[in-house]
Amino acid sequence: MLHTRIESGLSRLGLTVLFLLFSSQFAFADELNTGDTAWILISTALVLFMMIPGLAMFYGGLVGKKNVLSVFMHCFGITAVVTVIWVLFGYSMAFDSTGMTSGGLNIHSFVGGLNKVFLKGVGPETLSGSIPEVLFFVFQLTFAIITPGLIVGAFAERMKFSAVLVFTALWIVFVYFPIAHMVWGGEGSYFGDMGVFDFAGGIVVHITAGVAALVIAIMIGARRGYPTHITLPHNMTMTLIGTAMLWVGWFGFNGGSALAANGQAAMAVVVTQISPCIAALTWIIIEWIKNGKPSALGFATGAIAGLAAITPASGTVGPMGAMVIGCVSSIVAYIFATIIKFKFKYDDALDVVGVHGVGGFIGIVLVAIFASAEFGGSEVGLNITNQLGVQLYAAFFTIIYTAIVTIIIVKLVDLIVGLRVTEEQELQGVDVTDHGEAGYDL
Question: How far apart are CA 233 and CA 351, in angstroms?
Fold first, then answer.
């Protein structure tokens, strides 16, 4: 009798445990997940680390020593300007989905509403999936910060600091926010409803930055003596340190875009390691064959091209896709950085167009192929032809939109504060003329 009661009690206990386990999967699906929250907190810090000091050091080492401080100030100034705008109304423009309708176009298919201005209704108690919405807010802020930061490489050593700040404020509002909303705004957003693959920002970050860089490099004009006299990097050690910071930070950039601590985030980190390694090796092999020596600059540039290219694909491709994307992006970026820009004589000082613009475009195109389960990706039954059409449409739409709006903004900035330093100031160095200080000893 006692034995029977014990068996019955254990049976009821087992059923209760099973019920609690299964019910918790449903009960807490839309509740705070501390593991996800911890991972996105770390990822947020990693992405900000990419900008300050990562990108600042990467670019700072590549310019002449009399312009190092100006590059740092550009990166820090952009960080401050974008943060303030993001708090005031930027987050709302990018992610407020009020008024959006699935399958029907209206203004909110292209840009968010203003219901979250001044972070109205956004706090630690409100959720975005399984993380606090305020954490989602700050994670996305770091993406908004680094995108105009990338453009600094195109106008380095010759653009006024005041012009950088005004350009950033206008560009982030009229280019970044609408494109981010169209891609990442959720159901009812223009590209989102098309099913575009852009996991962590091939379109939103790299294509927009690359196109803007090309426009501004052409409109501001070349540096003194270009292309017969090219300023050599003043400190490649600094650039390699910056490369390392960007590389490690990219794990948060791509892995954090899963917005959860899960298998997708883990695979995103894996392919984010593979692609830059293949890309860097590809670049220095080309140099080895062509010049007889592999350069540190080539390794760093190739790695960043591979990181840019894997960004849109990191949530859907596997290791094989990462290897192909890294290799192809490096070859095409090399052609743009060493041949195309000199042929057409646009002074993209630090190769933003060739590395980020081209890298992002390569990733956006190749993800349509390598996201398929047939090639080791996560998408079962993917129609590659249809997906390729979607990817190309979104990419070219973004290229045209970004180019037109950037041209208008650059002209406005030139009218408001003037775009370029004088020839005498350029000769003296922007560190002293704009900031009254020098970073010569870095």
Answer: 13
What is the distance between the alpha carbons of residues 400 and 211, in angstroms, rounded to a whole number?
9
Q: Is the whole-model pTM more than 0.85?
A: yes
Q: What is the Cα–Cα distance from 71 to 429, expressed in whole angstroms?
A: 11
Residues of the chain by 3-state class (helix, strand, coil), percent to 5: 75, 0, 25
> How far is the CA of 325 from the CAs of 80, 95, 186, 369, 393, in angstroms?
34, 30, 27, 10, 20
Residue whose structure tokens are 């927009």? 208
DSSP type of residue 284: H
Which ranges in 86-235 belong to alpha helices (H)? Answer: 91-95, 133-155, 161-171, 177-184, 190-194, 208-220
- What's the confidence (pLDDT) of residue 98? 83
Structure confidence by residue, pLDDT tens digits, 15-37: 443 333 333 344 344 699 999 99
User: Cα(152)–Cα(146) distance, rounded to whole angstroms?
Assistant: 10
Nearest to 362 by CA among 409, 432, 307: 307
Paired tokens of 242: 């910056």
Domain architecture of the chain: domains with CATH = 32-435 (1.10.3430.10)
Residue 209 near residue 352 (C-beta atoms within 8 A): yes
